[in-house]
Amino acid sequence: MVGGVQLGVLAACVVLFVPMGMAGWHLSRNKMLFFSGALFITLAVGVHLTPYFPSIYDALSSLSSSVDRTSSRDSLLACDFQRLGRSDASDLLNGSWVVVAGDSQERLMALSLLSLVLDSDDMEVVKGDLFKRHSDYRIVMGQFGMKLDFIWAPYVANLTGLMTELKRNGNYPDVLVMGSGLWHMLHITNSSDYGVSLQLLRNLVVSLAPISPSLTGGSGSVSIRSPHFFWVGMPRLINSMLNTEEKRLKMSDAMLSAYDTELYQSKLLRQWGGGPLILLDVESLGRNCGTSCTVDGMHYDGIVYEAAVHVMLNALLIESHQKL
């Protein structure tokens, strides 16, 4: 947006350089000072009155916004980021086993993913079952062979237990989306303890063997496809909107920052330390969406999680070297 600051800078440049140019044309000193003063007053009044003339202000804002949108769109096209439709998402996930594990944030991620691949009639049934309090959920979409499991895992220790079970069974999903932190922050409120649990989870994920003994009993081995790992970051917490006094007290900005620091230092994330999990940055997405996108300062409108799902699907396209 072109605002008063930008216009003020422009006015200052005009006031400074135009009289200098006039001086170069050998005008008298008095004429130059008079013109400079008149020009300064005119531009100053114009800058301050511009916001009160909506047509002018809106035109400037519209022009700037148009340039910003064009630049953003060009950037997206340059990096091949795509907003996948139902058909493309179904093709990409055809035959896949997707596991989403965590708390209410991850449940909303599962909802957004299912909303992308299922029609509205099917989603009415899904919502009733998926949002049963503190419960697991499973669905098989026979039309394109995708299976999704939501595992209620509010603590990192629950995620570690899930990884241990998968490793013991030797059966891994194609896509594993997980996240945790809100429950720990509210009920334990100890960022150092959270960091230790993240380190244990990271060590377990890294230790997942890429090969396993052949089931035929021979001396060789067969390759196992490694899952695509994603971590759903904690959302932006708007303290004044949190719906209980306990949450407002324990889930402060300082505490959220401390928990985020432990996450980054754990080297669990690929973006921070080359870890095994790709971060889906819900906090940044929620911040960009704004306070109008949440009613409780913690859970955001579907558009935020939908955006995170598209980030995940684009990452899957890149990692699997596919084109739609």
TrEMBL record:
Its main location: membrane. It comes from the Eukaryota. One of its GO terms (cellular component) is membrane. The chain crosses the membrane at residues 6-25, 32-53. It is found in: Membrane. The keyword Acetylation does not apply. Keywords: Membrane, Transmembrane, Transmembrane helix. One of its GO terms (biological process) is xylan biosynthetic process. This is PC-Esterase.
